[in-house]
Amino acid sequence: MTFANIENGKRKAAVLVAGSWGTALAMVLSENGFEVTLWTRTEAQAAEVNGKHRNDKYLPDCPLPESMTATTSMEQALAGAEVVLFTAPSSAMRDVARQAAPFLSPNALVIHATKGFEAETLKRMITVLSEELGRPEDSLCVLSGPSHAEEVAKQQPTTVVVASADQNRAEQAQDSFINSYFRVYTNPDVVGVEVGGAIKNIIAIGAGMTDGLGFGDNAKAALLTRGLAEISRLGTAMGANPLTFAGLAGVGDLVVTCNSKHSRNWRAGHKLAQGIPLAEVLEQMGMVVEGVKTTKAARYLSQKYDVEMPIADQLYSVLFEGVEPTTAVNRLMGRGRTHESEQVARDWGLHQS
């Protein structure tokens, strides 16, 4: 697969939609020589990007490249696009893909960078895109890893991973994004990369809660360690390579999301620990908090695959059953005794002699 030249010598890319992550990744593509068009649902946002070269709701105080444009026309956004990046929230991915399908070039490289499951079907985003775009899953890519949009937009050093069953397409995606501040690795384990990116958002809500409750580093370390085990258990049951969770899409993404106020999921958990109801928290955030719906999806996935996920279960009880965060912590601390080496071996699919 090679990129064709167009009239002005630049390759074209489209980013659907113009949230914080989509805008930051559009800036990377623009830096790498692409002519980038952002697709947005609102005329006001398109006018702000085109007229002021800003997207202040999602990336305040961050000037955008003047060459970057925005449109509410899907046909216009995708015209000539050789790279198409989907960054729609998981709840909107199917609708956005359905709108894009009629205008997508058959040779376009399709990538998504969304960390979540479709709540109604429990499907991964690659599957949703495959169904709506009429393309095999093996031809699609996912970009994930430890990355805050605010830092990427400021060109601070960031390292991510792009996964695809098709190594050639993974390398094309790698070539599209990699530069001096944005390093990209490839990985064939699409399931592991998608599961790691999605489930870590649940643990990040828990991390925000522990910080909001005034707990210290001991509690945070335990949460991250056992949270990573839950990610690995579910991912492995779904067909992932457990080694993926020791990399950027696993422990890397978990660490950055659980330890930063940039994280929407961390901020949501912190607010919940202050006693603010979930509906009010989400209203205050003003942006999608993927971990909330992912917690519900994880509850059903753990049942489907018969996987034990006590942290996700307790966070579900806080989010959807009115359980106090302190009660959830006490339930976790009061669980039955176990042997760590045996538990770790089970978590990571290892066999003890």
Task: Explain what you see.
With 353 residues, this protein is α/β, with parallel strands linked by helices. The protein folds into 2 domains: 11-188, Rossmann fold (3-Layer(aba) Sandwich); 191-347, N-(1-d-carboxylethyl)-l-norvaline Dehydrogenase, domain 2, CATH 1.10.1040.10. It contains 16 helices and 10 strands. It has helices at residues 20-31, 43-52, 74-78, 93-100, 125-133, 149-153, 167-177, 190-212, 217-237, 248-258, 264-273, 278-285, 290-304, 310-321, 325-333, 340-347; strands at residues 11-16, 34-39, 69-71, 83-86, 109-112, 117-118, 123-124, 141-144, 158-163, 182-187. The chain has an 8-stranded mixed sheet with strand order 3-2-1-4-5-8-9-10, with helices on both faces. Strand 4 (83-86), helix 4 and strand 5 (109-112) form a beta-alpha-beta unit. Helix 4 packs parallel to helix 5, helix 8 packs parallel to helix 10 and helix 9 runs antiparallel to helix 10. The longest helix is centred in the middle third of the chain and has 23 residues, at 190-212. The protein starts with 10 loop residues before the first strand and ends in a 6-residue tail after the last helix. Mean pLDDT is 93; it is low at 1-7. Keywords: Cytoplasm, Lipid biosynthesis, Lipid metabolism, NAD, NADP, Nucleotide-binding, Oxidoreductase, Phospholipid biosynthesis, Phospholipid metabolism. It comes from Paenibacillus cellulosilyticus. This is Glycerol-3-phosphate dehydrogenase [NAD(P)+]. Pathway: Membrane lipid metabolism; glycerophospholipid metabolism. One of its GO terms (molecular function) is glycerol-3-phosphate dehydrogenase (NAD+) activity.
